[in-house]
Amino acid sequence: MSILPIDTGRYGTPEMRRIFDEENRLQLMLEVEAALAWAHSQVGGIPRKDAEKIIEMASTKHVKLSRVKEIEREIKHDVMALVQALAEVCGSSGAYVHLGATSSDILDTATALQLKEALKLIEQRLDGLERVLVQGAERYKKTMMMGRTHGQHALPTTLGFKFAVWTREIARHVQRLHECGERLLVGKMSGAVGTQAGFGPQALKIQELVMERLGVKPADISTQIVQRDRYAELICLFAMIASTLDNIATEIRELQRPEIGEVFEPFEKEKQVGSSTMPHKRNPIICERISGLAKVMRSFVMPALENIPTWHERDLTQSSAERFIIPEACILTDYILVLMTNVLTGLQVNEKRMLKNMKLTQGRMMSEAVMLALARKGMNRQKAHELIRGLAIKSDVEKRPFKEVLVEDDTVQKMLSEKEIDEALNPRNYLGTATKQVGLVVKKTKQERRARGLAD
């Protein structure tokens, strides 16, 4: 019976869920056992024919998940259940299964194999999202809209500028993922306390051979477990990625409010239902889902950090937590990356509404431009600020266009012509380097993508 929404299929992509399903986990653990037997045979530790038999039978075609669970119910140990199930199907060669190893050698190395697959998929998702953001930055580079601080009208900006800011944030996550992967993707054959005593004089060679066969690096040194700072770094990175997506989703949700109405997440007009009782509703449910799951992602950080401390060479306090947080963190990060890519790909933009909203303050949003125009004419900057502040308040209180109030003021009249006032009040003249910055971001990001072997 399915209980959690990942299990029911509500959340998660099939590709990522497959990586963490029980069958795949069992197969990877069997592959670690097979690699260990092979490595032993390479250094003369066990007969080659026995290693070949173990390799042949180390598959879920022969070692059934149901049998492993049956044994585990009896002996209350998951890895030993796997060892016994594999040994059963290997006949006399089963005597060499798990030789010298401890449970964590198999568990942690199998986790590295899972994470190797997971990171590859998440990297693809980040690459895809980055591409969509670059396209948005280019497309909306000159699409003027109201910039807001504290939720209030501030200065004009462009939608492309927002996309460019998000682009570089995702680009940094791509860099972090590569750096994290270098530290994360390690396995080990270190034995009960890390000394490799059970593997004999060829222990280091055995570990090297196992990891070479599996395609991950050996840990520099470990106790009975791979140290959990590696996993904590990954979970913290995933929480950061989720928070970036939450930030983008929150912006879209705010801008979709009817009072603003500037951008909208995709909505299937033919069939999609917004509310069970209000037929008119068009809710930003995908962005809300992203924000909601980002909360869950951030909650994984604490147990990930708590898993770093262990008693002596290891205890079991991190094990139960990791059975939740590692699969769920990977599955949810992958899922919300797909959701956000789809939202931005189908984002609906109302440019007319953007321009209309810029007029709500009757020109007062350009107060800084007017103040600086006065300063350039010789007025003390602080005096100019106080003058324009007072005139802006007067415009607001009297509900009159800012220009009317400006041209009536004797001090402003003496220093600025009506043409100069018009120029200062034109938002197109006050975008600064916005479009140039967008261009630089697009150029840099495309260069980085080409260096990673990706198309623009």
What does this structure look like?
With 456 residues, the chain is mainly α. The chain folds into 3 domains: 92 residues, Fumarase C, Chain B, domain 1 (Orthogonal Bundle); 255 residues, Fumarase/aspartase (Central domain) (Fumarase C, Chain A, domain 2), CATH 1.20.200.10; 65 residues, Ribonucleotide Reductase Protein R1, domain 1. 64% of the residues lie in helices and 5% in strands. The chain is built from 20 helices and 6 strands. Strands 1-2 form a two-stranded antiparallel ribbon. The protein has a two-stranded parallel sheet with strand order 3-4. It has a two-stranded antiparallel ribbon with strand order 5-6. Helix 5 crosses helix 6, helix 10 runs antiparallel to helix 11 and helix 16 packs across helix 17. The longest helix is centred in the N-terminal third of the chain and has 37 residues. The protein is elongated and about 100 Å long. The relative contact order is 0.11. The model has no long low-confidence stretch (mean pLDDT 96).
What's the domain count?
A: 3
Can you count the beta strands? Answer: 6
Enter the CATH topology name of the largest domain.
Fumarase C, Chain A, domain 2
| Strand portion | under 5%
Main beta sheet: 2 strands, antiparallel
Please list the strands of the largest sheet in the order they lie side by side: 1-2
Indicate the radius of gyration in whole angstroms: 30 Å
Q: What order do the helices and strands follow? A: HHHHHHHEEHEHEHEHHHEHHHHHHH
What portion of residues is helical?
55-70%
Tell me the distance between the termini: 45 Å
Overall geometry:
elongated
Low-confidence stretches: none
- Overall mean pLDDT stands at 96
**Which CATH top level class of the largest domain fits?**
Mainly Alpha
